[in-house]
Amino acid sequence: MKKFTLMMTIVLLVIMTACSSNTGNEGNNSLASANKGGSKEEKDTLTIAWLPNESSGDLKDTRDAIGEVIEKATGKKVEHFTTTDYIIAIEALANGSADLAYMGATAYVEAKNKNANLQPLVVNSGESGTLDDAVYYGWLAVNEKDTDQYKDGDSYSIANIQGKRFSFVSNSSTSGFKVPSNEIVATFSKQDTYKALTAEDLMEGGKNQFFSEVLYGGSHQGSAVNLLTDKADIAAFCDTCVSNYVDLKEGEANRPGAVYTVKNNAEQPFDQLADKSFRLISVTPVLNGPFVANLDQMSEEDFNAIVKAMTAEETTMNERIFLPEDSESSGLFWKTGDTHFVPVEDPWFNPIRELSK
Q1: Which end of the chain is less crowded, N or C, counting CB atoms within 10 A of the terminal residue's CB?
Q2: How confident is the model at residue 66, as a pLDDT?
Q3: Considering only CA atoms, which of 103, 92, 121 is closest in space to residue 287?
Q4: Helix (H), strand (E), coil (C) string for 107-157
Q5: What does DSSP assign to residue 266?
């Protein structure tokens, strides 16, 4: 618990210092057709790229509802480009095959590095309705049956993860790679044996490597499945990406020691894993990801219209976008407290940039 409190304090201080896969087939999902060509004034269709985590079939209604908000705001048709790979979504936004995207903070920073004319539109706020608590949680989890290996007094620790089989999400994932790899390096580099350890050293497993094997789930759901099917001993994934599939069984939500169990009626890819349980051994707050626009492709008028529409009360109260807390449907965003979309500017993501230095 002391470790979690310290990590929480560090991350939130950094945030304040910085000012502040079942792929759906909707629309035309080929990159060639998504790239309309021509100037931004000529475009009559806007294409939204979605990362693998948000491309599953059970999230189609939320994607469609967001598309409808943008269509109404701009008077243009919206097509959804769902993906099975982080890199595809990043490249689509950066090269103009997609006009907008919803992505994690690290994916945004990577895309921005490829195209300076990318600009964040909005992020979902925290319960306060502001950017101050606009965070979700990155987890390191182990199968419940194995948790004694990671006990540290009354709490849990990552001190015993070396030599294990580890599952990341993608090296372009914030909570599925960037944050956990930095945590691991920060923890183990204090030891003489690992004083030269880097995040790159964690990307591959094998003999003489930090991990015996390294897997990539391709999505947060996929990384969790790697753990629950015993392909990995430890896995990195985030709370929001698996919340539709699991229930809290024991402990306090988003705290080390909490146990989650797969729901009996969970949809793919958890449909064969009912009652499987995992325990959190590390929890880190992470900046919420933005909706991003490619200003090579989009006019300032459309950009401003989308921001206005997404931050409007009508969108905030749309239960297909912000699901009520007691909803049994699957969704991307939940109406807790004063949660809504808020405008955000590029410097807010500087803490994520700092992790890459």
Answers
A1: C
A2: 98
A3: 103
A4: HHHHHHHHCCCEEEEEEECCCCCCCCCCEEEEEEEEEHHHHHHHEECCEEC
A5: P
For 246, the token pair is 């699991």
Which ranges in 58-125 belong to alpha helices (H)?
60-74, 86-95, 105-114
* pLDDT at res. 357: 63
Contacts of 256 (CB under 8 A, 6+ apart): 1, 3, 4, 155, 156, 280, 281, 282, 283
- What's the rounded Cα separation, in Å, for the pair 302 and 310? 12
Predicted confidence (pLDDT) per residue in 260-280, tens digit = 999 999 999 999 999 999 999
**Rounded-to-integer distance, Cα 154 and Cα 326, Å:** 32
Which pLDDT value is given to residue 86?
94
The residues of the chain scoring below 50 in pLDDT are 1-39
Stretch (H or E) spanning 6: helix 2-17
pLDDT at 23: 37
- Label residues 163-184 b or e (16+ Cβ within 10 Å = b): ebbbbbbbbbbbbbbbbbbbbb
| HSE of 281, CA atoms in CB hemisphere, 13 A | 28
Q: What is the structure's pLDDT at 19?
A: 34
pLDDT of residue 95: 97
In whole angstroms, give the CA distance from residue 160 to residue 267. Answer: 33
What pLDDT sits at residue 261?
A: 98
* Contact yes or no for 71/40 (Cβ under 8 A): no
Longest CA–CA separation in the chain, Å: 63
Contact assessment for residue 149 and residue 316, using Cβ atoms and an 8 Å cutoff:
no
Calculate the CA dihedral of residues 338, 174, 57, 326 and round it to 10 degrees.
-30
The DSSP element (H or E) to which 282 belongs, if any, is strand 277-287
Query: Do 174 and 221 contact (CB within 8 A), yes or no?
Result: no
Give tens-digit pLDDT for 212-227.
Answer: 999 999 999 999 999 9
Q: pLDDT at position 43, please? A: 83
CA distance 122 to 99: 15
Give the three-class secondary structure for 8.
helix
Please tell me the distance from the alpha carbon of residue 15 to that of residue 304, in angstroms, as a whole number. Answer: 25
Q: Is 54 helix (H, G, I), strand (E, B) or coil?
A: helix
